[in-house]
Amino acid sequence: MITMKKVMKSYVIITLGIIVVAIAMHFFLIPNDIAAGGVSGLAMIVNSYFSFLDIGLLMLIMNIILFIIAFILLGSSFGIKTIYASLGMSGAIWALEHIYPMQVPLTKDVLLAAFIGTMLSGLGMGMIFNENASTGGTDIIAKIMNRYIHMDIGKSLLASDFIITIMASYTFGVEKGLYALIVVILNGFIIDYSIEGFNIAMQVFIMSSKYDIIAEYIMNELERGVTLFSGEGGFTNKEMKIIYSVISRKEFIKIRDYIKEVDPKAFISVSNAHEVLGEGFKRIDAE
């Protein structure tokens, strides 16, 4: 059951992602005519021919067409969050255009602008995608591809943005079009890496003679589930209990310090779990 606290947390993260992407667009990508795919890139192309049309307004108009598709194919939760993120993105860019208009780029080094802008944009979009939302436009197409053909979000976005990148080459020149292509490719990898990083948890196996109090600590103090396996020591031939649990990186530090106190001779095996679905983590039906 989704609580109001979780819903609010999700929208706060989406809002932060919107701000990060808007900063990347306004200060780095837009001033250097780097149309890095999506409706933002398409809006930049249209704006180059019709400068009286604000980019933020163009993005808003273009996104409306895809909202119905999002509601039908991806569900109301994704649709509502996407409308919020899309409106927020358009509003944030529109506000930056009027509050801090860019007369000249922060840097005339297009490669540097592309790199910084892409790093920020990929991080922000990763935050938004991770909350089962998108900024609209081709992001919706990417999410549909992710849902139905199980392609990574970043790679799906790369596929859907390729045509817009080709258009950018025609509008802004081959050189900037190639920069845009680099941005699209790098952006896809950064988004996938960001999403993976947000969802990484630690799966731990703990072998200790004091397994009972360690398991109790995990369940009561960390409020995480544990599974007990029966094992036998290959050298000692003694039966033992093995604790298995999936916890966050922050919680692992706590359990590690606790085990140091109660049983310094314990054996702990730790590995990354790149995606965890279920109780206490991401909902299974969130995708």
Automatic annotation (TrEMBL):
What is the annotated localization of this protein?
A: Cell membrane
Known Gene3D superfamilies for this protein? 3.30.70.120
- Is Acetylation among this UniProt entry's keywords? no
Chain ranges of the DUF2179 domain: 224-278
- Gene Ontology CC: plasma membrane
The principal localisation class reads membrane
Q: Does the keyword Membrane apply?
A: yes
Keywords for the protein's UniProt record, in alphabetical order? Cell membrane, Membrane, Transmembrane, Transmembrane helix
Record membrane topology: Multi-pass membrane protein
Record-annotated membrane-spanning stretches:
12-30, 50-75, 112-132, 153-172, 178-201
Instruction: From the Swiss-Prot or TrEMBL record, give the protein name.
Output: DUF2179 domain-containing protein
Q: Which organism is it from?
A: Oxobacter pfennigii
